[in-house]
Amino acid sequence: MLDGCTPWPAEFAVRYREAGYWTGETFSDFVTDRTRRFADRLAVVGAGQRWTYAELGERSAVLATGLARLGIAAGDRVVVQLPNIPELFEVVFALFRLGALPVYALPAHRAHEITHLCTTAQAKALIIPDRHAGFDYRTMAAQLRHAGTAPEHVVVVGEPGGFTPLAELRADRPDPGVFTRPEASDAAFLQLSGGTTGLPKLIPRTHDDYLYSVRASAEICALGTDTVYLAALPAVHNFPMSSPGFLGTFHAGGTVVLAPNPSPDTAFSLIETERVTITAVVPPIALQWLDAVEHGSQSHRDLSSLRVLQVGGAKFAPEAARRVRPVLGCTLQQVFGMAEGLVNYTRLDDPDDIITTTQGRPISPDDEIRIVDEADRPVPDGEVGHLLTRGPYTIRGYYRAEEHNATAFTPDGFYRTGDLVRRTPTGHLVVEGRAKDQINRGGEKVSAEEVENHILAHPAVHDAAVVGMSDPYLGERVCAYVIARTEPPSRSELLRFLRERGLASYKIPDRVEFVDRFPVTGVGKISRSELRRELARRLDTTR
Ligand code: OOB
């Protein structure tokens, strides 16, 4: 196994193989098999291009040959930072054919994060676009070069600006002699942790474990050759990649449509013209979509092909969840997952109240769920506690992070998710917040999520984010950031509204800030850590 990874103990590996979860299929097998099996079907639509599976297969074979000539070999790590363009799949499939490991970086990452990824992964190459969303990635790469932290090769999709153009690596003819089939039990790529603070940690996922989650997700989401999946979020994130995402769609022989951004305008026009059947968004985007249909600008769009809207990545408030079916005319599927492994889905045939009030249940019968108190003791059934998990597609350790692993995992291999959850009698999980997001107001615990849900119920409110602000007397107080729809309600009106909903007085925000937008992470989740920092700055200047 790749140095710096933690394998599953042998008895677990045996069990997961015997149960049929780990089949021995590798990503190089996946590429060869699916591009042949579905050869004539449409695989990818994006950036003005339409590729069949056969074309995707051929392109990746040709590029693999060129990458091999450049010196990329089995086991090498390559940081892939590409937006939602078809070349992303050409590159990733080429790397899979070589047995090289993509390290997935979000388009929103900048020199700071990319340096960290390149150094930690000891990457052989970095693959970037020329420009995207107003940012020049070549300038960033030049900065890395200057600092001596750039990998040996920098490959650019588009105008190379002094680096290696991807176009030049497309060999005349593919040479299957360079293709390498790795071990299915070895790491296939490095995914990033979704942490909203600090630098992302690297997550080694094996062929065996990840392909199991892809197959099982495709089945849960009922994907088939008629599936048209819209990648509206950055495709390299775990959610649009495998839950069931583009890999689930390729597994099933469907079509992946790439959206350059998830705005209602862009996404709805693609849904309409490509007859999209399923897509995935984070809650702030879901709210934008709901508002665009309900209050105007996009109400004329034909979204009738859409069967499933997946919402995940952060808590989707029940108040908002209930609007999905009436407004968009499709089934909501809540997805509570993490790049480290465990993914929960509400099932497509779950009753509406489960779909709108829970974050789903695990993929696998062998996903072990423990809900514990501060001392790792199980809490009584139905009560809120810290979620620990272990299973056939949840990692046993981060990449090259021995020290961190000692606290991020229990001695018997459970991953400490940092999430506070409770389990319903039906086995569904309800996320009550991040342990870190709980506000401790003089000993009274306030769940940011709960207060946000109440604020969202106000008709003039578009979105809300609640964070703790430090306080000399109580330790912390409650601050609500609110985006209003048009006319913001007055503070006193909003607070009265919350009291009338029967919210305990210690949960009523001590401070309300109206803003136009929230700071977000690379995948578009609200960044509470940035909000907290912003609040600290504000408090500092008003003191
Ligand atoms: C997904 O993955 P990451 O790695 O970016 O973030 C994982 C964390 C979870 O530990 C949890 O704190 C939060 O994001 N989260 C949710 C959630 N889905 C993720 N919190 C509340 N409700 C949800 N539905 O975000 C991710 C990976 C695969 C599929 C979906 C999301």
Low-confidence stretches: none
Number of domains: 3
Q: What is the name of the CATH class of the largest domain?
A: Alpha Beta
CATH structural fold name of the largest domain: Rossmann fold
Strand residue content: 15-25%
| Major sheet attributes | 9 strands, mixed
- In total, the number of strands is 27
Bound molecules: 5'-O-[(R)-(benzoyloxy)(hydroxy)phosphoryl]adenosine
Oligomer: single chain
Roughly what is the average pLDDT, rounded to an integer?
95
Helix content: 25-40%
Task: Assign the CATH superfamily of the largest domain.
Answer: ANL, N-terminal domain
- Tell me the number of helical segments per DSSP (H or I, 4 or more residues long): 18
> Could you say what the CATH architecture of the largest domain is?
3-Layer(aba) Sandwich
- Structure classification: alpha/beta
Q: What Rg is obtained from the alpha carbons, in whole angstroms?
A: 23 Å
- What strand order characterises the main sheet? 2-1-13-12-14-15-16-17-18
Described by the principal axes of the CA atoms, the overall outline is globular
Distance between the termini: 55 Å
Explain this structure to me?
The model has no long low-confidence stretch (mean pLDDT about 95). The chain has 3 domains: about 25-40 and about 50-180, 3-Layer(aba) Sandwich (Rossmann fold), CATH 3.40.50.980; about 230-435, ANL, N-terminal domain (Rossmann fold), CATH 3.40.50; about 440-540, GMP Synthetase, Chain A, domain 3 (2-Layer Sandwich), CATH 3.30.300.30. A 9-stranded mixed sheet has the order 2-1-13-12-14-15-16-17-18, sandwiched between helices. A 5-stranded parallel sheet has the order 4-3-5-8-9, with helices on both faces. It is globular, with a radius of gyration of 23 Å. With about 550 residues, the protein is an alpha/beta fold. The site of 5'-O-[(R)-(benzoyloxy)(hydroxy)phosphoryl]adenosine has 21 residues, from helix 8, strand 16, strand 21 and strand 22. This is 2,3-dihydroxybenzoate-AMP ligase. Keywords: Ligase, Nucleotide-binding. InterPro entries: AMP-bd_C (IPR025110), AMP-bd_C_sf (IPR045851), AMP-binding_CS (IPR020845), AMP-dep_synth/lig_dom (IPR000873), ATP-dep_AMP-bd_enzyme (IPR050237), DHB_AMP_lig (IPR011963). Belongs to the ATP-dependent AMP-binding enzyme family.
